F-box protein Pof3 (Schizosaccharomyces japonicus), 574 residues
Amino acid sequence: MNSQFKNYNDKTRLLLKRRNFKEALSYITHCIEREPNPTMELFELRVIAFEYLKKYDEAQTDAKRMIHLNNKSAKGYLRLGKLQQLSNQDGMADQTYALGLANVHKLDPLLPVLRKASEQLARRLQLSRPVMNLFARFPKEIIIKIFDNLDFKTVVRCMQVSRLWSKSIKKEPAFFRRLDFTYAKHGSVMNRDKNVMCIARYSAYAKNEIQSVIGVEKLGILTPSKALLRCVPSLTEWQTISEIKVPQLDKLHLIWTPFSNLQFLHCNTPVTFSTAARILHSCPKLVELTFKSLIPDLLFDSMEWKDTATFQSPTFSLKQLVFLRDQKFPLHETETEFLRQILQNSPSLETLTVTYQNNLSGLLQQAPCKLKKLSVFDDSHNPSPKKLFISSSVECLTVEPGLPNLAISSPYDIQSAEGDIELRELLLNLYVRLSQDIVTKTTNFLEKCRHLRSLILKDAVALNDQLAQIISFFPDLQVLDLSDNISVDDKFATVLGTMCPQIKQLNLSGCPSLTGRGLLSLVKTLTQLEKVSILHCDLVSKETISFVRNKGIKVYTSTYTSVPVNGTKRLKLI
């Protein structure tokens, strides 16, 4: 019988392969009639022939015969369920799959296939079920309030729930004020930019309601999506997410004239100085401008920003500027002139984040703006002292290395105007090998900052002898960070609690000399303490930590014992 069935099977398959469906059906029917006890395999061949001829009712009859002959096999249920789906009988197919899962033997090799087919059908049935019309059941004000709290990705998914929801969402342009493509095909920047093509659809719904676009990478290249956004006068915010590799950097400045109403531009994509100049010229209403990676033009002597009318306008409207250049390229004097022109023409500038340059101190002294926040990032490797001037209006000063894992490679001589400084927040990364002259100047500078509310000192090894004296300058201090300092011990903790009784947040992580006695003295004297961080303070016992937490104070500790780390740049410098 096996050899005979093999002959039946081979000839039927050959006829089907040659697309002789009627001949194959006639042949396999003749074979079934010849056999006194036709098997399930023969009926399966005829089911295949009926399916090719799209005779689904006759095929279902043979599939049911297959189940009758062997209800422990998954073949019959798979064939019958597929035929019922082809006949638009999804409900009956779901019942067939459920019956098969209940009857098929657990060792049947096709059982996983049957289970997967059942799950796919159930998922499709769930998506095709009628969806409650929220837009007709709830008032419009409530629906708008709900959608205002959803991100753009969720709004797009809601459009895919049903055709009814999609039509209702399209009628409310307020849902498309913020187009966020951050999560669009996160594997590739180029794919993300292709996904931005759906702006064409959404902007058609939103008309002139689009205010913010996040995730459009190609700043200067003319794309269809950008050409469409040129016709949206309500656009005020543009943000790129990640860096891209542009083969021709000198062609990044092609179009910026359309975005005349842009107010917020956050650019994480490398751009040339010529592009930056054209952006400033084309977007006179900019309030916040971020350049995370400025690179020089391909030819220094042909910087095109000098030939434009960028700086002929009397003033810019900038209030916040991030001006970070890529330190891989050498500094050119034209770049310094570029920054000077921006500062001279921005009288309303309040926040400045800039990469350190040799003449930065002179630029800050000449600038007419009254800065309130100044952040300086240092990527250079020049060990000579660097001067930094801050005006009396600065309330927040930050001096940090270009990368979090690096240390400042040179000392800073911070200069200021006569009298006390109005600083409220200070984050200072110090050079670990400070000379006695720089230590004295730094101490004198800190003495002028008597109004400090937040003080963060990193790598303050050189100031260990003067640390108690420095802390006495700030009686109104509320936030203090002295992490990674071996001189912070129980005696210093007692002095700290007496000198700064208003501290609310304290970070003493990485201070191996601190014990539980010192922490308890701090808790007793600092009555307003809310948070304390003591990571890698192995001498503080668990009982002390539990006692402090019972006082209602948040304590941050490490879950493992700190071990010495060898070979890091910072430890080598120390």
Q: What stands out?
A: The chain is about 40% helix and 15% strand. Residues 111-128 form the longest helix (18 residues). The CA atoms of residues 520 and 547 lie 9 Å apart. Residues 134-241 form one domain.
